[in-house]
Amino acid sequence: MGQRYVQHVNRTYRRTGPLFEGRFRSSLIEADAYLFACQRYIELNPVRAHMVGASGDYPWSSYRCNALGQADALVTPHPLVLDLASSEEARRIAYHQLFADELTTETLQRLRASTNGGFVLGSGAFERRIAAMVGRRTWKGAPGRPPKPEPDAAQQDLPI
């Protein structure tokens, strides 16, 4: 069905190639520390790509619901969004103000690296807690082979 849909879209819009390039990528985040950074990153993507002038101009953005108050049955506000303010009007203003500052280069790099690598994004304690739960490292390791361990001093004195 997916293949037929892509063929239909390609014929209809006179285009070629895959409709959805690349694979789906995701990253587990520590919500308290990174939820709003992730939402800003996602909702500013169409602006960075010069598809629209502002986040609210993109028709599929949750920004329209969270900051502009447009009803959307598909959007369920996260509890941290609801905690921004007690009234809906104040919450929309607070959400809109989150977009006043650009994301730092460091934050953009961390978001992209964790998503592309499938790594956890959060504090060191959060990353270690998740690593213990899943039984594997959840952060990017150093490139290359791990260094060989140094031999014990007792082994160094043994004649060959």
Can you offer a commentary on this structure?
- The protein is mostly helical and 160 residues long.
- The protein has one domain.
- 47% of the residues lie in helices and 0% in strands.
- It has 8 helices and no strands.
- It is extended and about 65 Å long.
- The model has no long low-confidence stretch (mean pLDDT 87).
List the main descriptive attributes of the protein structure presented here.
single chain, 160 residues, mainly alpha
> Tell me, what's the shape?
extended
Largest sheet: none
Proportion of beta-strand residues: under 5%
Average pLDDT, to the nearest integer?
87
Proportion of helical residues: 40-55%
Radius of gyration: 23 Å
Number of helices: 8
The domain count comes to 1
What pattern of helices and strands is seen along the backbone? HHHHHHHH
Which structural class fits the helix and strand makeup?
mainly alpha
Which helices and strands occur, and which strands form pairs?
Elements: H1 2-12, H2 31-48, H3 63-66, H4 79-82, H5 88-97, H6 105-117, H7 124-134, H8 153-156
Describe what is shown at a glance.
By secondary structure, this protein is mainly alpha-helical. It is 47% helix and 0% strand. The protein is extended.
